[in-house]
Design a protein that fits this description.
Blueprint: E1 11-12, E2 39-42, H1 46-50, H2 52-62, E3 70-74, H3 80-88, E4 93-99, E5 102-108, E6 111-116, H4 121-129, E7 135-138, H5 159-166, H6 174-187, E8 194-197, H7 204-219, H8 221-230, E9 236-239, H9 247-257, E10 259-260, E11 265-267, E12 272-276, E13 292-294, H10 298-321, H11 327-331, H12 334-347, H13 359-370, H14 379-383, H15 386-403, H16 409-421, H17 439-449, H18 454-457, H19 460-463, H20 470-493
Parallel strand pairs: 1-10, 2-3, 2-7, 3-6, 4-11, 7-8, 12-13
Antiparallel strand pairs: 4-5, 9-12
Helix pairs in contact: 4-6, 6-7, 7-8, 10-12, 10-15, 10-16, 15-16, 16-20
InterPro entries: 6-PGluconate_DH-like_C_sf, 6PGD_dom2, Mannitol_DH, Mannitol_DH/Oxidoreductase, Mannitol_DH_C, Mannitol_DH_CS, Mannitol_DH_N, NAD(P)-bd_dom_sf
Catalytic activity: D-mannitol 1-phosphate + NAD(+) = beta-D-fructose 6-phosphate + NADH + H(+)
Enzyme class: oxidoreductase
C-alpha cells in the first residue's frame, strides 16, 4: 500500500512529534520508557492494535503499574510491513473509531517494542524467556493453531510443525517459539508464562493448551509434562469489528487529523473482552478498564461466534454473489438483512443462557454494527480462510439444531452460498478470488460437483460426518440449485 501522503501539512508520527499533534488527539500520558514488557503479543495486526493494545493503553493511562507494556512479535513474511511501520514510529500508531456520529483519533503507546522473527529468531525466544514476560497473547487467526477440525487433533504432519520439531533452535511457527522459550525458562528455574489466545475459536484456551502440549510432548516429553502442569491457558472472547487498513485510511488520518502514519488502524466504537480468570504468573487489573473476568467464558464466546461470526459468513458469501463490496452495502439490501435476522433466530435456540446479556438487544446491536457505513468493512475479509471458519462459526450450531430437530434453513443457505462462491464467479459473471489454504481442493470440488453439494460435504476435515444427515444434505442441495439458477437475490426473493 503506497500512501502518497504529502508531509508538508502533516506531522510524521513518532515520540518526538507527540507534543505537536492537534489538541483533539489523545496521546499517551505515561512514560513509555519506564514500561516493562510483561506481555509479549504474537501476531500484531489491526485487531490486536484496536483491542488488547487499546485496553492496555487505557490501563497504563490510569494506573501507575508499569509492568504491562507490550512487546509485539511478527512471525510471518507478511509482517514485514508492520515491522517497517512500527520501527519508523517508535511503535506508536493512530487508532480511529468511526461511526455516523463522527471520527475520534488517539495515539496508542502500549506497544514499546516490535520483533520480526525472520530477522532474528533467537531474539524472539529471548523476549519470551525474559523473566519480565508473564503473559503471551496470541492473534494468529483460526488457521494458526494447526488443529484438525474433523477430529480435534493436532496436525503433527504440517510442514511448519515438522520443521520446528527438527529445528528447535530455529523455529518458524508459534509452537516452536513458545516451546523453545518455555524450555529455556524451565532450565533456568524460572516460572512459565500464561498463554492467552485471543482468536475466534470456541474454547480458544483449551485448543491452545491441547495443541502446544501435543507439540511439546513430541519434542521433549518431560517439557510437555512441565507445560501441562504449570502453564495456564485462559479461554477468552474478543469482539470489535476491525477492517484491514487501506490507502483511504492513511489519507483520512492525514487529512482529518494531520498525522502521517504508515499503518493506522480503524475500528467501530463497540468493544468487548471477556476473560477466564486463570493466570499462572499474575496479570494487570483488567477489570479497571472494562474487561469482564469470569469463571466461564463459554456462553459468551458461543454467543459471539454463533451470532456475529456466522452472520459475517452469510453476509460475505451472499453479498459477494450479489455484487456488493462492503458490509454496510449488503445490510442496506432488505432481503439479505432479513436473512441475517433469520439466521440469528435459527441459531438462538442452540445458545446457552449468557449471564448479564439480553440476547434480543445483543442481536439488534449486531445489526446496527454491521450497518455502520463509516467502517468500510470489505467482504473479502469476511470470506478469507473460510475452510477454517465454517466449522467454528456455523457447523457447531448446525449439529445442535439437527439434534434438537430445529430449523436449519439459513445455516444451510450459508453453506450453499459458500459452495456457490467457491465456483469463483459472482451472479454477474465477475471473477471471485478464493483466498483459502484449501482453495485448490475446494474450487475443484465446487466446479466438478455443479449443483450437487456432496463432493464438498464429503471433505471430512471440514464437515466431519454431517454428510450422513439426509435432511442437511437435501436442504443444502436445494439452496445450491436455487443459487445456481436464480442467483443470490433471486433465491432470497423466492
Amino acid at each position: 500500500m503506497n500512501s502518497n501522503i504529502s508531509t508538508g501539512s502533516t506531522i510524521k508520527l513518532n515520540e518526538a512529534s507527540l507534543s505537536r499533534l492537534p489538541n483533539n488527539i489523545r496521546v499517551p500520558n505515561y512514560d513509555r520508557h519506564s514500561l516493562v514488557n510483561g506481555i509479549v503479543h504474537i501476531g500484531v495486526g489491526g485487531f490486536h492494535r484496536a483491542h488488547q493494545a487499546l485496553y492496555l493503553d487505557n490501563y497504563l493511562q490510569q494506573t501507575h503499574d508499569r509492568e504491562w507494556g507490550i512487546c509485539g512479535v511478527g512471525l510471518l513474511e507478511f509482517d514485514r510491513r508492520m515491522r517497517d511501520a512500527l520501527h519508523s514510529q517508535d511503535c506508536l500508531y493512530t487508532l480511529v473509531e468511526r461511526s455516523t456520529e463522527g471520527d475520534w483519533a488517539r495515539v496508542i503507546g502500549s506497544i514499546t517494542r516490535y520483533l520480526f522473527a525472520p530477522d532474528n529468531r533467537a531474539r524472539v525466544i529471548d523476549a519470551l524467556a525474559d523473566p519480565h514476560c508473564r503473559i503471551v497473547t496470541l492473534t494468529i487467526t483460526e488457521a494458526g493453531y494447526y488443529y484438525i477440525e474433523g477430529s480435534g487433533e493436532f496436525d503433527a504432519h504440517h510442514p511448519t510443525i515438522q520443521h520446528d520439531l527438527q529445528h528447535p533452535h530455529e523455529p518458524i511457527g508459534v509452537y516452536g517459539f513458545l516451546t523453545a522459550a518455555l524450555n529455556k525458562r524451565r532450565q533456568q528455574g524460572l516460572p512459565p508464562f500464561t498463554v492467552l489466545s485471543c482468536d475466534n475459536l470456541q474454547g480458544n484456551g483449551n485448543i491452545a493448551r491441547k495443541m502446544l502440549t501435543a507439540f511439546a510432548q513430541m519434542q521433549n516429553p518431560e517439557l510437555g509434562n512441565w507445560i501441562s502442569d504449570r502453564v495456564t491457558f485462559p479461554n477468552c472472547m474478543v469482539d470489535r469489528i476491525t477492517p484491514a487498513t487501506t490507502a483511504a485510511d492513511l489519507k483520512m488520518v492525514a487529512e482529518q487529523f494531520q498525522i502521517d502514519d504508515a499503518f493506522p488502524v480503524v475500528a467501530e466504537p463497540f468493544l468487548q473482552w471477556v476473560v477466564e480468570d486463570n493466570f499462572c504468573a499474575g496479570r494487570p487489573d483488567l477489570e479497571s478498564v472494562g474487561v469482564q473476568m469470569t469463571d466461564d467464558v463459554h456462553p459468551y464466546e458461543m454467543m459471539k461466534i454463533r451470532l456475529l461470526n456466522a452472520s459475517h459468513l452469510l453476509i460475505g458469501y451472499l453479498g459477494t454473489l450479489a455484487g456488493y463490496t462492503y458490509v454496510h452495502e449488503v445490510m442496506a439490501d432488505p432481503a439479505i438483512r432479513q436473512a441475517v435476522d433469520r439466521l440469528m433466530a435459527e441459531v438462538t435456540p442452540t445458545l446457552q443462557p449468557v449471564p448479564g446479556i439480553d440476547l434480543d438487544a445483543y442481536k439488534q446491536t449486531l445489526i446496527q454494527r454491521f450497518a455502520n457505513p463509516k467502517i468500510q468493512d470489505r467482504l473479502p475479509r469476511l470470506c478469507l480462510n473460510s475452510a477454517a471458519k465454517m466449522p467454528k462459526f456455523i457447523l457447531g450450531s448446525l449439529r445442535d439444531a439437527l439434534q434438537q430437530d430445529g430449523a436449519i434453513e439459513y445455516m444451510s443457505l450459508t453453506i450453499a452460498a459458500w459452495f456457490r462462491y467457491l465456483k469463483g464467479q459472482d451472479d454477474q459473471g465477475n471473477a471471485i478470488e478464493i483466498d483459502d489454504p484449501m482453495a485448490d481442493i475446494l474450487t475443484q470440488r465446487a466446479r466438478s460437483g455443479g449443483s450437487d453439494p456432496r463432493p464438498l460435504l464429503g471433505i471430512s476435515e471440514i464437515f466431519g460426518d454431517l454428510s450422513r444427515s439426509p435432511r442437511f444434505v437435501e436442504t443444502v442441495g436445494n439452496y445450491l440449485r436455487s443459487l445456481d439458477e436464480f442467483g443470490a437475490k433471486g433465491t432470497l426473493a423466492r
